[in-house]
Amino acid sequence: MKFPALLPATLATLVVALVATPALAQDASGLPQAPAAPMAQGQPQAAPAAPAAQPWTINVQLEHGADPDTDLTGTPVILEAARPRGPFEVTAPEPVARWTSVANAEGLAVFNQVPAAVAQQGLRLSAHATYGGVPFSSRAYAAADGVRMNVRVFDRGHDLSGLRVASKRVIVEPWEEYIILSQTWTFTLDAEHAVDVAMLPDPAYERGLPIRLPVKAEGIRADGQGTFEIINNVVFWKGVIKPGEPVTMQIRFSVSARDDVFNYEQEMAWPTDTLQLIAPLQTQYKRTPRLGTLELVAPGFELTTDASSLGLRDDMEFLIANRSDVAPGQAYAFQLRGLPFGRPMGGWIALALGILVSLLVIVFGLREHRRLHDGSKREEIVSALNAERELLLDELAELRRLRQSADEETRWEIDAEVGLLRERLSLILSKLRDLGHAPQS
């Protein structure tokens, strides 16, 4: 089959198609494109972020406690945030945040950048200012926007008139033949000035405010506001006392107690509003976990067992004594009976030695008297006196050795016995001198 007529036409059509295809492609690229279909969203879009919490504004008002017209413009003020202070803490907690400002002509310091997170963390706010070289503070406030805090400042005084002990609590506990005493002192100042003890001109306060403890006090430790120095049985405190701001400190020490009866006495140098004695009936001894026979004798005190009113643990038992209005220079005393301590053996040993020596003295005395009146030989009398003298010297040496390790009560008994032996020894030496046989040393 032949197609001679179709070959030229077919070739022409192919050529036109090949030439037109690139041109159409170029024209299509210049046309506006249809918008693409939106892509399907597999996940929901995130919600818009919440706006940041606005900072709080805290106002601190400075006021002069004695002269309200005092100009406090430009006084620096510090705002601190710290955790709440515990009921038995003697020092304030360390602040976790701090801001600064300056008082204006009205004595107002404004803090407008305090974050609201302070309240969420349960922190408390306190303001501090220094006036006349003396630091002053406000009470602790719960954090809230717009809260107004007050700080009272005073001029610096130069004496301790108006100083008193608002309260003193003494906790007495037995431990390892010792009595542990924990004393919590709270001082207040009734005056129109503040006092820096370190800057008092009175030489009696050169080392600080002296708190005298019994001479027997051992292992003394002191904690609280200010600084402490311990010399022998005296605790010296240096710090600032301000009207309306109590100063609390704790003094802890031990006293030897090897008997079942313990006596204590201490003089109060300042007027005292409230004095409390507390003796727990539970101990740390496994053999005597409870002091069922303990008695507290405190002249002038009112005895009670109401521990809840003092904030003590309700799962423990206590002996409590309260007293009010102790005058300056007046001493208080108390006695504990039924302690888990036995009477020391040193006293019984000294008593036994004393009885033995007394019997020997009587025997030798009768023998000497009989020989003197019976006309016995002189040499026998001298020999007996020398033997008794040597015996007395040995007894005195033994008592001196026992006295070195004895407690105070036993030492008193030993000293009394030593006095009797020395009297007898002086009589023997006198007789030997009368007989012409005085010892050489």
Automatic annotation (TrEMBL):
Ranges for region Disordered: 31-52
Coiled-coil features, chain-numbered ranges: 382-409
Residue stretches of biased makeup (Low complexity): 32-52
The entry's keywords: Coiled coil, Membrane, Signal, Transmembrane, Transmembrane helix
Name of the protein described by the UniProt record: Protein BatD
Signal sequence, renumbered to the chain: 1-25
Transmembrane segments: 345-366
Organism, scientific name: Lujinxingia vulgaris
